[in-house]
Amino acid sequence: GNSVTQMEGPVTLSEEAFLTINCTYTATGYPSLFWYVQYPGEGLQLLLKATKADDKGSNKGFEATYRKETTSFHLEKGSVQVSDSAVYFCALIYGGSQGNLIFGKGTKLSVKP
Amino acid sequence: GAVVSQHPSRVICKSGTSVKIECRSLDFQATTMFWYRQFPKQSLMLMATSNEGSKATYEQGVEKDKFLINHASLTLSTLTVTSAHPEDSSFYICSAISGGSTDTQYFGPGTRLTVL
Predict the structure, then answer these.
(1) How does A89-107 read in b/e, with b if 16+ C-beta sit within 10 Å?
(2) In chain A, count of helices (H) and strands (E)?
(3) Among the partner residues A89, A98, A104, nearest to B103 by beta-carbon distance
(4) Phi and psi dihedrals of A98, rounded to 5?
(5) Among A66, A92, A101, which would you mutate to test the B interface (most chain B Cβ atoms within 10 Å of its Cβ)?
């Protein structure tokens, strides 16, 4: 079946450190891939997305590349800030239907000053 | 960006009572709304999809008579947990899409339900 696996947290980093949150997926066909972020007390927000192989999504200094050969969509940022502290969810949509949005379990990131 | 609100943000109720959770799109018309449930350290699980003016479509394993969903207008959907029991305690999240977007869901902040 279709599923998303992401690294378990929590992840604790110092400000300006390099961030990688791993995400791999299993899906039939060619899913669209997403990273959502949930800041404390707020709803999930779309951070970035990629809709086909080799696409790179980017936003707010975060990047992720759709790797079909490794079925991965790892999230990276070169220099994290305290304000990046949040829970990050990797997700996919298969079959082009909004009802088929599948999430990973989320990874909590804490950035210390 | 588009904003979705939920009310209440948290609710505590006694076993056997019913609880209603509201989901509103504040600055856009939501043709479709989704209801998710999230257990601690687990991913969001889709419960049902509702389209304005029609019956909700429930995912397999979700009791439609227990989780009543109404999408009476283009800006409001409600989830009613009927005869709540402690095992219904969870974090409930709604999301919405506008007619103009094909793959971006806008999420509410969630509602924490605790059934005693």
Answers:
(1) bbbbbbeeebeebbbbbbb
(2) 0, 12
(3) A98
(4) -60, -30
(5) A101
Handedness of CA B101, B105, B108, B111 (dihedral sign): positive
Minimal Cβ distance to A105: which of B34, B41, B108: B41
CB pairs under 8 A between A and B: 50
**pLDDT value for A3:** 92
CA B67 to chain centre: 9
Residues B19-51: tens digit of each pLDDT: 999 999 998 888 889 999 988 777 889 999 998
> Residue A38 and residue A103: Cα distance in Å, rounded?
13
pLDDT digits (tens, 9 = 90+) for A3-22: 999 988 899 999 999 999 99
The single residue listed with the structure tokens 């949005």 is: A101
